[in-house]
Design brief:
Radius of gyration: 28 Å
Number of helices: 7
Helix content: 10-25%
Shape: elongated
Number of strands: 34
Structural class: mainly beta
Strand content: 25-35%
């Protein structure tokens, strides 16, 4: 074995890769005159390479070699040369192809060549692995769209196999590899990438049936228990919406592929909206370029703490806004959320977001509507309190709702789809959405069933407000929150807990990445 290892190390392979990004483009310009002059605005074509990132475990660059670089005189060209000498040695890097112009592009032709000692071959040597793909491993194909203002990330890897036999070892060999994707103006043949909605649609199953991670056949997910490997993990269709124009798809449980990088911040996808948009919750700032891994969120996953409202001595303070002597007044937390949005997203990212409903469901119920068991479990015995819709659904174990019972409680910018009381398209998650994601209510019983969930994707070891009222009377107002020690719980509105903004991306938003913490979906 030692002799064989010595022999292997006596060989080296020199790799040289040139990626040439061809540009083919022609646009007609004309002056038109019909009792006046109309001019076609001049467009810009700009497809180029940028942002090379080398895998830190790649072989070091040796004497006479050069790591991957973009040609300083031609940003449509990338070169590198490396020497591999040991089994398992590899060199890998990613590079972005950016369409910084004003015209959609697509790959017109794609040519790959490989030469061994300057002799072209169609067969990759058996001791070698050589791949050029997108960063998620998908194959690069002709006609794939590169929309204006977006990018794709190529991943290039050359590797000396570890399981080679002695007779497979080459003498000192030079391999030259080139890939030439020629980008042209997009036409009707362009293949568009899947949208977020399409990805969720393609992977979703109904939540009211038995499936891979739901062991209960009827009615499927048990809503009085937390998400688990037997009670929901993955993407589901909310039953009752499956025949809608845009069914509601949502993430549940210990998932790690719903991370988004947007506006300089990390987010978690929660669910789709009635228009096919994508509702997501703030999850902190990147750490070393990463939005985390696995199901453990970052400690900084709120923008800070806030009271829900400064006062709690009236039921009106469960409102995201409330009437103050005839004047519509913002809640304390709405002011915090709006200010953060204004300072961080309004200028450069507002156009990516849709106007959607944030439901502050204040539909009312009384103590008499609950059974003795429900009263005991959820502290619903007092006849002086008004209990609200979210509490009713939780206590009755009805399952989460994705609709808002009253348009007056449906917070939106436009009064065409809600109450029109928002300045910006940002709000908070409802207790129903937190419940749907996999959290349980403290009052359901022992840990491991309806109690707290320590592994679902919204768990972050902090306490943070929902938008959903619990109860209120003339001297007290309580709102539901995600409590790190108890699951869904209620607290007085004048307590201070985490604020986590929620926004909704427009349908069809273009992205790159695969949704993992290390490679989050990135909005261009």
């Amino acid at each position: 074995m030692n002799e064989r290892n010595k022999k292997i190390t006596s060989y080296f392979i020199l790799f040289s890769l040139i990626i040439i990004l061809g540009v083919v483009y022609a646009i007609l310009q004309a002056n038109l005159q019909i009792n006046g002059t109309a001019k076609i605005a001049e467009n810009e074509w700009d497809v180029h390479f940028e942002n090379i990132v080398v895998n830190q475990d790649s072989v070091p660059i040796g004497t006479g070699d050069s790591g991957a670089t973009i040609d300083p005189d031609n940003n449509c060209k990338v070169d590198f040369s490396v020497t591999l000498s040991l089994p398992g040695d590899y060199y890998e890097f990613t590079v972005d192809v950016k369409n910084a112009g004003t015209i959609d592009a697509m790959i017109g032709t794609l040519t790959k060549t490989l030469k061994v000692n300057n002799v072209e071959t169609k067969t990759v040597p058996e001791y070698l692995i050589y791949t050029v793909t997108y960063d998620d491993g998908e194959e690069i194909l002709e006609n794939q769209l590169l929309a204006k203002g977006t990018k794709e990330t190529y991943k290039i890897r050359v590797e000396f196999k570890t399981d080679i036999d002695e007779e497979d070892l080459p003498e000192a060999t030079t391999l030259s590899m080139a890939i030439e994707p020629v980008y042209i103006q997009a036409d009707e043949n362009a293949i568009k990438p899947l949208s977020f909605y399409e990805i969720m649609k393609n992977n979703a199953v109904m939540d009211n049936i038995n499936s891979t991670y739901v062991s209960n056949a009827t009615p499927g997910i048990k809503w009085d228990e937390i998400a688990s490997d037997t009670n929901g993990k993955g993407i589901y269709i909310r039953s009752g919406t499956e025949n809608n124009e845009n069914p509601i798809y949502y993430y549940r449980g210990a998932v790690d592929n719903n991370n988004v990088y947007f506006g300089g911040f990390c987010w978690k996808i929660v669910r789709t909206t009635e228009t096919g948009g994508l509702k997501m919750i703030y999850n902190g700032v990147p750490t070393s370029g990463s939005c985390g891994s696995g199901t453990t969120s970052q400690e900084n996953s709120s923008i800070g703490t806030s009271k829900y409202n400064a006062s709690s001595n009236n039921a009106k303070y469960v409102g995201y806004t409330y009437d103050n002597s005839g004047v519509e007044t913002d809640s304390t937390i709405k002011g915090v959320i709006d200010t953060w949005y204004q300072n961080n997203l309004l200028t450069n990212y507002d156009s990516y977001l849709e106007d959607t409903v944030f439901c502050n469901d204040r539909s009312t119920h009384t103590s008499s509507e609950f059974t003795s068991e429900e009263k005991s479990a959820f502290y619903l015995t007092s006849t002086s309190y008004t209990y609200y819709g979210p509490t009713y659904r939780l206590a009755k174990k009805l399952g989460p709702s994705v609709t808002c019972p009253s348009s007056s409680d449906a917070y939106t910018k436009s009064n065409a789809i809600g109450n029109g009381k928002l300045i910006y398209p940002v709000g908070l998650l409802t207790s129903d959405e937190i419940w749907m994601a996999g959290e349980g209510a403290y009052y359901y019983g022992t840990e491991g069933t309806g109690y707290k969930n320590t592994t679902y994707y919204l768990q972050n070891n902090i306490n943070w407000w929902s938008l959903s009222p619990y109860r209120g009377n003339g001297s007290n107002a309580n709102v539901w929150l995600a409590y790190s020690s108890f699951g869904l719980d209620y607290y007085s509105v004048d307590d201070s807990y985490g604020a986590r903004p929620v926004v909704s991306l427009k349908s069809g938003t273009v992205f790159s990445g695969d949704g993992t913490g290390e490679n989050p979906y990135t909005i261009e």
